[in-house]
Amino acid sequence: MKSILRDIVHKYFSNFAFFYRHLRYRVFVVLALSIMVGVMDGLGLAMFLPLLEMVAGDTEVTGEQMGNLAFLVNGLQALGLSLNLSVVLMVMLIFFTLKGAFKFLEQYKSVVYKQFFIRNIRESNIKLLSNYDYYNFVNADAGRIQNTMSGEVQKVTQAFKEYMKLMQHSVLIIVYTVLAFMANPQFALLVAIGGILTNFAFNNLYKKTKGLSRVLTKSNHGFQGLLIQQVAQFKYLKATGLIRSYANKLIEKTYEIEDSQRKIGVLGAIMSGIREPLLIGVVLVVILVQINFLGGTLGLIILSILFFYRALTAVMQVQTHWNKFLSNIGSLENIEAFIEELKKGKERTGKLTLQQFSKSIRLEQVSFYYGDIPILLDINLELHKNRSIAFVGESGSGKTTLMNIISGLLKPTSGSVTIDGVDAKQLNIATFQKRIGYITQDPVIFNDTIYNNVTFWAPKTAENILRFEDSLRKASIRNFVMEEQPDKEETQLGNNGINLSGGQKQRISIARELFKDVDFLFLDEATSALDSETEKEIQDNIDQLKGQYTIIMIAHRLSTIKNADRVVVLNKGRIERIGTYKELIGESESFKRMVELQEV
């Protein structure tokens, strides 16, 4: 039974289920308030019938002409109230005042829950992306991630707004239809049938809007992907004169987006133009049928018309909001699929925590495949605490993949990795990675102050300031920051550290990793983008850190690894030889050849 219900919900109420997962009971709070708005409005309208009787000059007002709504008049009489003009007007005022109060609560709760929904979606996506497995991340579409995390959230928020309006007006349709049936069942049935038939006229337009929404979402992904690459490769594109050709690709995407949005707008305009005349035509035909063939008092017909006018207004609103919702359905479907992908691609990790690295990391028979392609094969290696080790080899030999496995970014296809004797699969890998300082060829610089770049936005306490200055000192950049910069640690570094030289950016990166109180320093070609003089200065800084940290290096410039405790020569994914720099020159022909080619 549960599986059947789940299938029904998935097939017919998947959108409602999505919003319910993020809002829970709040959805029903808004719907309950909408019901109360409709009920109060309907009861207030029903009191127009006694009012019409009084205006017509009836001396005695009864509920006979109100059908099943006669309980209103009977109830007032039971309370000992005589139905005069003042009482009727007062009761109407009470009903419409209550309607206003419920309407306020409905609108207020809708605003509050909308903000809650936005925050919930963003927070959920941020957490899921933070826990996303690195292997899955590097194989994902960067444009899609960017677009989904930013622009798509806004569109899903708009979809949520339209869907909530859709549900609220749907509730009003039900309320007014029920009241109309209570007043005049025959009239109500005819109008309901006519309203349902007119809805079929819009089905084809709905389908076209839904399809265009999906096309629009895909175009937005492509635009974001191209934009990310233009920003990342701006220097190259500008220097080579390709910037305008690339810009034309972006412009083509904007035309695609514009075309889809224009078509969606045209469909919306068509529906807006024909909706009201069609629905009013149905009511007019039903009035003629009721008077000429079915009979009935004019008062009941007027009351039914009042209810159906309200209901048809709600129907038009439902159709309007449904079409607007469908114009964002592509974004909703995309974000649902994106969330599922993030969940499925979640990093698998253990529960044990690593407080501090104390002994060694051991790799036994480790292999790694990318699909069917072998990258690493049968790696056996041990890394000891506070020792330095360098990985060298030709491009494609597996150096970066090996470092990624050691750092926990990638999981081996086979074999085992143990940290201080504990299988890495049993460790909460994040607790291990907090002990890592990672310095890459392209320094990571945030568009913020030097202090925030080094401390990663740590509070500016006396202790943190001391640690900050100590990190600058170890990275040999304290004088530059504290004496040469007018704003000292509050100096803004600009986009990607545009105000710094290459060496200064690298020292800021090193200072950040040292501030973190780490056990490891991973140096991924950390000096390869620097000139020889700056490289030597940075390398001297790194050499001074030997014995204080476990240092793992990847280097193409072999002059930077002369002082490493051990050097691992990789060749086509296998370890060819391990030894000191001097030992390998005598024992490894391939290593000796690399040294000779670089004239080290």
UniProtKB/TrEMBL annotation:
Residue ranges of every copy of the ABC transmembrane type-1 domain listed in the record: 69-327
Spans traversing the lipid bilayer: 27-49, 69-98, 163-181, 187-206, 278-309
PROSITE patterns found in the cross-reference section: ABC_TM1F (PS50929), ABC_TRANSPORTER_1 (PS00211), ABC_TRANSPORTER_2 (PS50893)
InterPro entries: AAA+_ATPase, ABC1_TM_dom, ABC1_TM_sf, ABC_transporter-like_ATP-bd, ABC_transporter-like_CS, P-loop_NTPase, Type_1_exporter
Domain ABC transporter: 361-597
Membrane topology recorded in Swiss-Prot or TrEMBL: Multi-pass membrane protein
Coiled coil, from the record: none
Keyword terms, alphabetized: ATP-binding, Cell membrane, Membrane, Nucleotide-binding, Transmembrane, Transmembrane helix, Transport
GO MF, one example: ATP binding
Pfam families attached to this UniProt entry: ABC_tran (PF00005)
Primary localization class, coarse: membrane
UniProt subcellular location: Cell membrane
Name by which UniProt lists this protein: ATP-binding cassette, subfamily B, MsbA
